[in-house]
């Protein structure tokens, strides 16, 4: 997939306040075209994980959305409509499957499964959105600001479980986040590092190479995945993931 992401700066109206800001900092309105990526080649394959990281304003979300426009079967986690029913009912799948899915998203406690989305915290509701998206079995799941509302330990666990769900179900994931602490746990097939004012860096897991500006679409070989030290039970998530254990 060839990716080009850019946009024109919109004309601005000079006012007393904007003039004062420009005089204070010695600048003028930005004009012309802002280029995030030009002719970037990404190895986008079904059943893979693409992770876009970078500071706010670096273009990671714009790049992820550009990929979405070129693929089919996409479910956006943040666009899902949450029904006023219990979590286990909202998934619309077998109870045992629903319990296991909720547990993999950090919602394995029995009392949580019986709540409605309105009764959840923001972090719990986000995790439920991920579970709901997975239950629909789409070709791709898109998640902007991935795990931004979660505490970092739980975020790493969810990222680790996303890798396992991707491998088991064949569902592809496109995620964008400012938090790169989840990358090692997620072990994405393609990691795009977006940078302010510079070309993005692309890391391809299977090729075990890093190229700036472009990466070949072909795959050669594979990299052994780290052994899991995290455990998931229907009652919730316990223990820790690979990277979490190494930091303790």
From TrEMBL:
Keyword ATP-binding: yes
A GO cellular-component term linked to this record: plasma membrane
Keyword Repeat: no
InterPro entries xrefs: AAA+_ATPase, ABC_transporter-like_ATP-bd, ABC_transpr_LolD-like, P-loop_NTPase
GO molecular-function terms, A-Z: ATP binding; ATP hydrolysis activity; transmembrane transporter activity
Domain ABC transporter per the UniProt entry, residue ranges: 16-220
UniProt KW keywords: ATP-binding, Nucleotide-binding
Gene3D superfamilies tied to this protein: P-loop containing nucleotide triphosphate hydrolases
UniProt cross-references to SUPFAM superfamilies, sorted A to Z: P-loop containing nucleoside triphosphate hydrolases
Protein name, entry field: DL-methionine transporter ATP-binding subunit
Organism this protein belongs to: Rubinisphaera italica
